[in-house]
Design a protein that fits this description.
The longest helix has 20 residues. A hairpin with a 5-residue loop joins strand 4 and strand 5. Helix 5 runs antiparallel to helix 6. By secondary structure, the protein is an alpha+beta fold. The chain is built from 7 helices and 8 strands; from the N terminus they run ααββαβααββββααβ. The protein has 2 domains: 56 residues, no CATH class; 145 residues, Alpha-Beta Plaits (2-Layer Sandwich).
């Protein structure tokens, strides 16, 4: 359990890496340690038949706490599943080079916004090309900043229906197993992120090497992926 890991190792971790930890991350660790313990208080319930008392401690309700939001996450997934169209779907993942991770973590509000906007822009722009979809697509985007191994790795998951809508309102199906070319998608994504990032932070010097390297965009065709979206 994550809270137990923090109880055992939080202090030593903070002593070693505390200078680089954001206040929101410190608060999340503290909230999870206190979650459903006497530290947050609680309520007492009494059975109306046997008079037995039941103690229930309060939850921390931090958005990062798996104890608090596991059920909410599943509920959200169930609602999204009801919105699926009866068409094939594509799961795409947009990542940024490791050389940008420190800058993104330092300027999260601006650069994570740029990441989300650049991903959707690249998808929509390339899908409009008549060689691929030729219409306006839909896109459900989810931002992740950490991997399951708790490594900082900002990236965007996109769930995209396999087709789009033409200017006259007609449905245009994508080719079987293919939405758009990921190499071209990666280049548009990189250029758009660069434009948004430099506009948002004109005083910041971005490492030139990241603009020359390939940016990884992953794509997989599937009938639906909502139930398994990470």
């Amino acid at each position: 359990m994550l809270a137990e890991i923090f109880r055992k190792h939080r202090e030593s971790y903070l002593q070693r890496y505390g200078q680089g930890i954001l206040p929101s991350h410190r608060r999340a660790m503290g909230d999870m340690v206190a979650c459903r313990t006497e530290a947050l208080g609680g309520q007492v319930f009494q059975c109306s038949h046997c008079a037995k008392l039941h103690y229930a401690y309060h939850s921390c309700r931090n958005r990062s706490c798996p104890q608090c939001h596991g059920a909410q996450t599943q509920e959200w997934l169930n609602v999204r599943a009801q919105e699926l169209l009866p068409v094939p779907y594509f799961h795409l993942v947009f990542t940024i080079p490791k050389g940008l991770h420190e800058l993104v973590r330092t300027h999260q509000q601006l650069l994570l916004s740029a990441l989300m906007r650049a991903a959707s822009y690249a998808l929509i722009k390339l899908a409009l090309d008549p060689r691929y979809v030729g219409g306006k697509i839909g896109c459900l985007s989810v931002l992740h900043t950490w991997t399951r191994a708790m490594i900082y790795h900002p990236h965007v998951h996109c769930l995209v229906p396999g087709g789009g809508v033409s200017p006259d309102g007609q449905w245009l199906p994508a080719r079987t197993g293919f939405l758009v070319p990921v190499t071209a998608l990666s280049k548009i994504f990189r250029a758009r992120f660069m434009e948004l990032a430099r506009k948002a932070l004109p005083e910041v010097s971005f490492p030139e090497s990241v603009w020359k390297s390939s940016w990884v965009v992953y794509a997989m065709a599937s009938k639906h992926l909502i139930a398994g979206m990470p």
